[in-house]
Design goal:
The chain is an all-alpha fold. It is 70% helix and 0% strand.
């Protein structure tokens, strides 16, 4: 059901409670079903804070493990690994560890401030 134009704005009624007796309910129901399915698809693709945190921790862990593996290869077979790759991997791992420590410190500080401001 189309509502008459207000200035240059044209509005469509999508709430079933606002539909008049002469309106086609099937079309509005289709619109509402489409909106509900769009909301459900957005909810499925959205990650929670826990998911982002776990993903970041897994990435940091994999970088640490990569450095360990490269260090073992340098010791056992120095010709198979370029020392520059080891240095770059160590820098990446150190940076991700420092970032994780900073985030943890900020979260703990924020939590302490929240609990003491009662």
């Amino acid at each position: 059901m189309k509502i008459p134009e207000i200035n240059s704005l044209q509005m469509n009624s999508t709430n079933i409670a606002h539909i008049g007796k002469n309106s086609k309910v099937e079309n509005i129901a289709d619109v509402l079903n489409t909106q509900n399915s769009a909301k459900e698809s957005i909810e499925k693709t959205c990650k929670s804070f826990q998911d982002y945190l776990m993903e970041a921790m897994n990435t940091m862990n994999s970088q640490q493990m990569e450095v360990s593996n490269l260090q073992e290869k340098v010791i056992t077979d120095p010709d198979s690994v370029d020392i520059h790759d080891v240095t770059i991997a160590m820098s990446k791992a150190r940076m991700s560890l420092n970032l994780a420590q900073t985030v943890i410190d900020i979260v703990v500080t924020s939590w302490n401030e929240i609990t003491t401001t009662r």
